[in-house]
Write a structure and sequence with these properties.
Blueprint lengths: L4 E4 L9 H10 L5 E6 L11 H7 L7 E6 L7 H7 L3 E4 L7 H10 L3 E6 L17 E5 L14 H15 L4 E5 L4 H10 L3 E4 L11 H8 L20
Parallel strand pairs: 1-8, 2-3, 3-4, 4-5, 5-6, 6-7, 7-8
This protein binds D-xylitol-5-phosphate and zinc ion (ZN).
The site of zinc ion has 6 residues, from strand 2.
Amino acid sequence: MLNTLISPSILSADFADLGAEVRAIDKAGADMIHIDVMDGHYVPNITIGPGVIKALKPHTQKPFDVHLMIAPVDPMIDAFIDAGADLLTIHPDAGPHVHRSLQAIRARGVKAGIALNPATSLDVLDYIIDSLDIILVMSVNPGFGGQSFIPSQLGKIAEIRKRIDASGRDIILEIDGGVNPVTAVQCREAGATALVAGSAVFKGSGQTYAENIAALRGRHNNKHSAENISPVKQTA
Ligand code: DX5
Ligand code: ZN
């Protein structure tokens, strides 16, 4: 049986030992590695740049799920792809021409995602759904790990699920922020196919990561198995 994709956020890992942490979550069964990039401008925190991502790449074969919380985002897209991003998610208010940014990502053979902050309407999806491989619903305000899940986002997830199904496209619906074994069930029931989790995965020690990841998985079928995360086929 296929499982919900679990993408542990290394924001909650030991920054002094990131290579070992990435190897540990790989071994513990992570499907992807979620990397939160923050610039101290779009969000009030500064984290990881392309140099660190490049250094981590040899530590795992798992796809790098890179979440850019930076503005302006366009000048940095190529640098993060060169560093090893396999999926690259941007925020719609991080640049003037979102459609062009998504095209630029897909033109490099990388999966393109849009991230919706808790207060962002899903109207932003109206004219870009054909350019998307991932829709990431922020269930906390971006900037920090360890925050509480905002329940109003469950309705948004369910609405987006309908839009994805109506589009007939194979789009990953990923939830990011405050995901724990309880909210994970709610997210899956609302239609999520991928879950980001930082504090819920990295609690305890490397020995407990597998248990932590298993606790986030349900018994639901999910067509988004890690094997299916193949390079984007560019259409137009
Ligand atoms: C917040 C980040 C999240 C965050 C998740 O800006 O995008 O990925 O690290 O952390 P937890 O799972 O602890 O809420
Ligand atoms: Zn994130």
